[in-house]
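ARCHIVE CARD
CATEGORY: sequence design from structure
SOURCE FIELD: tokenized fold
FIELD CONTENT:
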């Protein structure tokens, strides 16, 4: 990262390198357990979502013989479950403290957000009951 440029000869900025290093350090610590905990939390709070995930999982299970392990094709059938997991990760990122950068100018809830602004997402800012 420090000594090799990209295909155009540009080098990474120091802030980008720091971001990559933090990603490596944080990425392997508590992320899977945090993600699983938040998935369980949201499924417990949203029984209609839980029921749909449960039925999808049971459909996959019915196609298996007892003791047979899941394979890639089984995972491909779990589209709703995958979408739920992705939505949970969007709402409650296991990388607390990570920032997101606006890639374009946009207006959200009447507020103008310029390209380049950084925001630290928080679960409360996305979900209101």
């Amino acid at each position: 990262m420090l000594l090799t440029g990209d295909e155009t000869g540009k080098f990474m900025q120091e802030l980008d390198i720091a971001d990559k290093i933090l990603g490596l350090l944080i990425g392997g610590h508590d992320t899977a357990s945090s993600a699983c905990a938040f998935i369980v939390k949201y499924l417990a709070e949203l029984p209609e979502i839980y029921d749909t995930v449960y039925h999808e999982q049971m459909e996959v299970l019915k196609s298996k013989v007892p003791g047979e392990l899941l394979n890639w094709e089984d995972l491909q059938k779990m589209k709703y479950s995958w979408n739920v997991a992705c939505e949970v990760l969007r709402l409650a990122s296991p990388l607390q403290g990570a920032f997101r950068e606006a890639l374009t100018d946009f207006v959200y809830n009447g507020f103008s957000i310029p390209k380049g602004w950084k925001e630290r997402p928080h679960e409360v800012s996305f979900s209101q009951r």
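CARD ANNOTATION: The longest helix spans residues 47-62. The CA atoms of residues 106 and 113 lie 5 Å apart.
SHELF: design records, drawer C
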